[in-house]
Amino acid sequence: MPPGTGDAQLSLSQLIPIAGAVIVSTPQDIALLDARRGAEMFRKVDVPVLGLVQNMSVFECPKCGHQTHIFGQDGARSVAKEMGLDILGDIPLHISIRETSDEGKPIVISSPDSPQAHAYKHVANEVIQRLPEYVDSMPER
Predict the structure, then answer these.
(1) What's phi and psi for 97, nearest 5 deg?
(2) Chain center to CA of 105
(3) Which region holds residue 104: left if phi is over 0, alpha if psi is between -120 and 50, else beta?
(4) What gap in Å lies between CA 21 and CA 128, rounded to an integer?
(5) Number of helices (H), then strands (E), in the chain
(6) DSSP 8-state secondary structure symbol assigned to residue 60
(7) Closest alpha carbon to 37 in 10, 56, 14
(8) Which of 9, 15, 51, 116 could pair covalently with 86 via S-S, beta carbons 3.0-4.6 A apart?
(9) What residues have CB less than 8 Å from 50, skipping those under 6 apart?
(10) For residues 54 and 27, is the Cβ–Cβ distance under 8 A?
(11) How many other C-beta atoms are found inside a 10 Å radius of the C-beta of residue 3?
């Protein structure tokens, strides 16, 4: 969901059944304010928050491998701890993610054994483990 006041979360929760919400944020303080607000709004409308994903958690130089925490380090982990939420994983800031996405071939398809693909697969597995068993709550048509 885009950052904002929580209106989108409220509208969404009133229109369709939601099994759970995943909050995605960069580790920087300003982004985490919106992430916290989104998680609180989902909780207010009784949508379980499955956890937080720390996006762009670290930049790894493709030439030398040096890692830099451009947006700060572990901000989402701190917020998750404060809110009693799980961290579902960290997605790095990596050129291959951007390039393969722009080409329409996500990293999990184009380079499934890469560390970047493993980061996405880890998050997906964490989400699956936290989802309640699917029950179709929509009335038959």
Answers:
(1) -65, -45
(2) 20
(3) left
(4) 12
(5) 6, 4
(6) E
(7) 10
(8) 51
(9) 20, 21, 22, 86, 88, 126, 127, 130, 131
(10) yes
(11) 14
Instruction: Tell me the pLDDT of the chain (141 aa) as tens digits.
Output: 555 556 776 777 788 888 899 999 999 999 999 999 989 988 988 889 999 999 999 998 888 889 999 999 999 999 999 999 999 999 999 999 999 999 999 999 999 999 999 999 999 999 999 987 755 555 554
Extract the tokens encoding 38.
Answer: 């989104």
* The pair of three-digit structure tokens given for residue 25, joined into one six-digit string: 């944020």
**Distance from C-alpha of 81 to C-alpha of 68, rounded to nearest angstrom:** 23
Cβ atoms of residues 39 and 59 within 8 Å? no
Distance between CA atoms of residues 115 and 65, nearest Å = 13
Six token digits for residue 1: 């969901």
